[in-house]
Design a protein that fits this description.
By secondary structure, the protein is an all-alpha fold. It is a multi-pass membrane protein. Belongs to the binding-protein-dependent transport system permease family.
Length: 306
């Protein structure tokens, strides 16, 4: 844990990710109490207004405050990412770890199911399924994403479980008659914590990106506000053509920042878990420090000589 928290990439990534979580939790209060508005309120005196005055990030073509939508949309986008990530990694852990540890026909059957889902064109299928649904809210979008994105995670977990089940400590537990589920939950799962964290963060970002893509293509809508719906409405109402960057650029930037934050945490986890990366990173820091010290010494020598 100390290595995890002292890693620079991890701290930056967690800080950004934590900021988005905080905005998602208190966003509605900020919009109503601080801004004194709501994402659906229409200001007929400021239709398509540029940033400034009462609307710090301008308004949409319908007169809705963009900053209020940006803050409120954080909850919807982050909720979709978290829910889809939990579902995808949960199903992947159930299928991958069970098949990898039990083996035999169970593993063959679960691997076949995983391969079938992995070969399906997930995004087009999500479009088709969502098109037949009456109400496609954030929860429905998250469930669709989670149900179609778990096979890749399951393959990673199965491979790691196959490696772990042949270790000496697992064989020793089998010899003393330890139950399978206790070995999985108490011995195998703790060794998979790092890869589970990495897969979960990746699934969260995939969920946010996929939700934005589905919204951009016209899936859902209604009263729900997410970063994806902001970009979709900006495109549908010609905000891009009119050059209303304050409408579509901020949600796109926030999506990119969320992806960068999770990538930084994953890079930090790789450095902590991989000795080669950890030592190379430390060596790079030492080389940079030595270079700066040598440059400083040369500068001081020149100043003394002059």
């Amino acid at each position: 844990m100390s290595q995890f928290l002292t890693n620079g990439k991890v701290r930056i990534g967690l800080a950004v990710f934590g900021a988005f979580l905080l905005i998602a939790l208190i966003g509605s209060w900020l919009v109503s109490s601080v801004l004194g508005t709501d994402p659906h309120r229409i200001d007929y005196d400021a239709l398509g207004a540029a940033p400034g005055g009462e609307h710090l990030l301008g308004t949409t073509t319908s007169g809705q405050d963009v900053l209020a939508q940006l803050i409120t949309g954080c909850r919807g986008s982050v909720a979709v990412g978290l829910l889809s990530g939990v579902l995808a990694v949960g199903v992947a852990a159930l299928v991958g770890v069970t098949g990898g540890f039990i083996g035999g026909r169970t593993d063959q059957m679960l691997t076949a199911v995983t391969n079938i889902f992995a070969t399906l064109p997930s995004f087009p299928l999500m479009l088709i399924v969502a098109g037949y649904m009456a109400n496609v809210g954030p929860v429905a979008i998250a469930l669709l994403i989670g149900l179609f994105e778990w096979p890749v995670c399951a393959r990673y977990l199965r491979a790691q479980t196959l490696s772990l089940r042949g270790r000496d400590f697992v064989q020793a537990l089998r010899m003393v008659g330890e139950s399978r589920w206790r070995m999985v939950l108490v011995e195998i799962m703790p060794h998979l914590t790092g890869i589970l964290s990495s897969l979960f963060l990746r699934a969260v970002v995939t969920g946010v990106f996929t939700e934005a893509g589905l919204r951009f293509l016209g899936i859902g809508g209604g009263d729900s506000v997410t970063w994806g719906t902001m970009i979709a409405f900006a495109q549908q109402q010609e905000g891009v053509v009119r050059g209303m960057w304050w409408w579509f650029a901020p949600p796109g930037l926030f999506i990119a920042l969320l992806g960068t934050a999770t990538a930084l945490v994953n890079f930090g986890l790789d450095e902590i878990g991989n000795p080669v990366l950890r030592h190379s990173s430390r060596a790079a820091v030492r080389r940079a420090t030595a270079h700066m010290a040598a440059r400083r010494d040369r500068t001081n020598t020149v100043e003394v000589a002059s």
